[in-house]
Amino acid sequence: MEKDILLAWIEEGTVNIPSILFTNYKRMGLNETDIMLILQVYSFQNKGNSFPTPEELSSNMTITSGECASILRKLVQQGFISIEEGNTTEDILFEKYSLKPLWLKLLDCLQEEKKQSQRQQSSFNEN
Amino acid sequence: MEKDILLAWIEEGTVNIPSILFTNYKRMGLNETDIMLILQVYSFQNKGNSFPTPEELSSNMTITSGECASILRKLVQQGFISIEEGNTTEDILFEKYSLKPLWLKLLDCLQEEKKQSQRQQSSFNEN
Amino acid sequence: MEKDILLAWIEEGTVNIPSILFTNYKRMGLNETDIMLILQVYSFQNKGNSFPTPEELSSNMTITSGECASILRKLVQQGFISIEEGNTTEDILFEKYSLKPLWLKLLDCLQEEKKQSQRQQSSFNEN
Amino acid sequence: MEKDILLAWIEEGTVNIPSILFTNYKRMGLNETDIMLILQVYSFQNKGNSFPTPEELSSNMTITSGECASILRKLVQQGFISIEEGNTTEDILFEKYSLKPLWLKLLDCLQEEKKQSQRQQSSFNEN
């Protein structure tokens, strides 16, 4: 029995989140609830559901589906997530969330950090 | 230059979080801020800092260091995280956070889920 | 253009392998080619192909499809991987590889290690 | 007792390997033993040992320490791994392996794939 639990744990798998998300979300203007909603979307997508509803998302969270819908709208408007269209093999149109805009913003953060540390380095060398 | 950014991304690494944490934290009585604080502790530990201060934690979050300290206290009291003592190779005592209690609670959640689905299965078979 | 490559990298994702596999496969009687074949199966499964053919596997490897088939047969016979039957939602039968036997063997390794270190501890305390 | 094993499993952690390594190593001229040696180096580094010896590496593998040393030399010569120098906080020089050259080669593979699929796309549109 115990071994079944362990296999269940292993088979459930993990959600792998870039470390820099944890150190940079505040700087990008996001709060803890925003990030957890994004991670819920990401977790649903990893399990094959690429367009979870506000109801599905809120079932895992302490906020209502109305609040989920409202935060999702804000995240789309502010360019953190986007909605893409896809085609199934049977040529049926469907919508899905994309986190590409978020990854691109994080890359910009990394680039900015790098520039700043180079600037500090060079002003240090000048003195 | 762009390639440096990519290497930085790769070398920053990821924080790997069990999927079941996302589906079960609400049921365990935790909210989004609690979970993000736990993930910040986990992320610091992955980088080698096993006992981050409330100040370090709040520098990445939208809550104050006072709020961090107060939530940490609550999480320890409610048995989600514990404080363990360790010895360095030079025999100096140090404290560190342990997330073992959280993983054990998640295992209990998995076990409970399993029992319930078996109960439903058998009551279904009886009818 | 460069940013596209970066997004492709991120979206390709990672294969997450338990660290103890790397420290224990030799002890379990497996060699480097066996393990790489298992990791190829695991990688195909993560992308949604749960029963890759020897041809698909060998297309990524330096061994022939015949050698892949022969090693797969050996791994099934020795109880490292199993073949399970599944049902699609349209009730069509299909076969898939399962790595559960491997995970269970690794758990036994961990348990064995623990016992040995406890035995050493207690014989140390007796002297 | 069983729960201890589970915690040990969780705390051992995982080695996260970019999926594209599995689909591209053959094309880059590497075989299964080469890749497993690289993954062993990576796994040691994740545990804090940034310059494992051939003896340490071969203790986990089915090849001798002499063979490990010889493959490592080949991988450095062919530009898959490099040896970098570092300074400890006490200003002591040390050497460590770097996998940056490998990640850069994988990025080139991704870029090449992209170009080819675009060329096929455009020759398809011309006909």
TrEMBL record, chains A, B, C, D:
Residues 17-116 form the DnaD N-terminal domain. It comes from the Bacteria. Belongs to the DnaB/DnaD family. This is DNA replication protein. The lineage of its organism: Bacteria, Bacillati, Bacillota, Bacilli, Bacillales.
